[in-house]
């Protein structure tokens, strides 16, 4: 459906609710005869803006849903003087000053602007509550008295400074807000540019970078020799092993060590005969050993 004329709404003067969501409406017209209309749902259409002919001042609409339409402005909605709930989520609204049009809507109690670019601005919720102090709910979250008091304290008039723009606050507001902190990635270049300009000093010219020659770059990128690397690893392992105390040797190993340390007889040295042969006189002749009789 592209327009409302095909519905022939003029005879329905007692119609209280009208739902035309999920259609292809690009313009809103034909509501002038609905004198009893209280709720209107225009969600998920293509209504990019409202015209003066969209809402006549005598329309008693109390609830308006215009979500996901691509709206960039809330112009002409102020003609709905009896509006109590306004749902504009999923659009392209991005300007705080645009809501000054709705400043005279004293009956507005519920407002939803979720998934709009304006919700990502600094102090979005505080600014909206400052514009509409009579809201009972904003973006589905209840508004309490304590929150309204904190908002009033944030917007302290400052006659010396006059109109200020702080943290996303529109130009039409006077007052000061605490400075917002943003993470800034600084480097030597933009640090001098930012703080040098703020102090009124000249920004020093950066020194030229020295580009290494092709020979030096090749030498720097040359890989370490495999043989050298293996030698270094072996030395490192040896030093690590030397720092670890060795375990005491077992009995078999200790016996072998003692045999190795024992003095060995020389070739010209005579071996002592067995004691049994000496006692029995069984020594061979010419052996040079003494005999006992």
What class, by secondary structure content? Answer: alpha/beta
Mean pLDDT: 74
- In total, the number of strands is 7
CATH architecture of the domain at 5-154: Alpha-Beta Horseshoe
As a percent range, the share of strand residues is 5-15%
Order of helices and strands: EEEEEHEEHHHHHH
The description of the largest β-sheet is: 7 strands, mixed
Under CATH, the homologous superfamily of the domain at 5-154 reads Ribonuclease Inhibitor
Computed CA radius of gyration, to the nearest angstrom? 49 Å
CATH class label of the domain at 5-154 = Alpha Beta
| C-alpha end-to-end distance | 146 Å
The coarse overall form would be elongated
Q: What is the CATH fold-level name of the domain at 5-154?
A: Leucine-rich repeat, LRR (right-handed beta-alpha superhelix)
Percentage of residues assigned to helices: 10-25%
Number of distinct helices: 7
What topology, given as strand order, has the largest sheet? 1-2-3-4-5-6-7
Uncertain segments: 162-168, 170-182
């Amino acid at each position: 459906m592209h327009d409302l004329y095909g519905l022939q709404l003029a005879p329905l003067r007692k119609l209280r609710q009208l739902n035309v969501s999920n259609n292809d409406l690009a313009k809103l017209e034909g509501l002038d005869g609905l004198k009893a209309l209280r709720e209107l749902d225009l969600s998920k259409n293509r209504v990019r803006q409202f015209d003066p002919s969209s809402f006549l001042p005598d329309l008693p609409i109390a609830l308006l849903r215009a979500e996901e339409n691509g709206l960039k402005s809330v112009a002409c909605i102020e003609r709905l003087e009896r509006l109590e709930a306004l749902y504009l989520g999923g659009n392209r609204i991005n300007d705080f000053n645009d809501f000054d049009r709705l400043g005279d809507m004293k009956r507005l109690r519920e407002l939803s602007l979720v998934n709009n670019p304006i919700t990502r601005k600094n102090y979005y919720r505080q600014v909206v509550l400052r514009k509409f102090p009579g809201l009972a709910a904003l973006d589905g979250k209840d508004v309490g008295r304590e929150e309204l008091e904190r908002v009033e304290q944030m917007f302290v008039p400052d006659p010396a400074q006059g109109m200020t723009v702080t943290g996303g606050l529109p130009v039409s507001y006077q007052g000061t807000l605490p400075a917002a902190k943003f993470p800034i990635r600084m480097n030597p270049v933009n640090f001098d540019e930012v703080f040098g300009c703020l102090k009124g000093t000249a920004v020093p010219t950066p020194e030229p970078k020295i580009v290494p020659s092709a020979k030096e770059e090749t030498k720097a990128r040359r890989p370490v020799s495999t043989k050298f690397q293996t030698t270094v690893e072996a030395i490192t392992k040896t030093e690590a092993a030397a720092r670890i105390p060795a375990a005491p040797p077992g009995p078999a190993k200790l016996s072998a060590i003692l045999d190795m340390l024992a003095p060995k007889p020389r070739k010209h040295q005579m071996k002592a005969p067995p004691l049994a042969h000496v006692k029995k006189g069984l020594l061979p002749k010419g052996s040079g050993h003494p005999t006992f009789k």
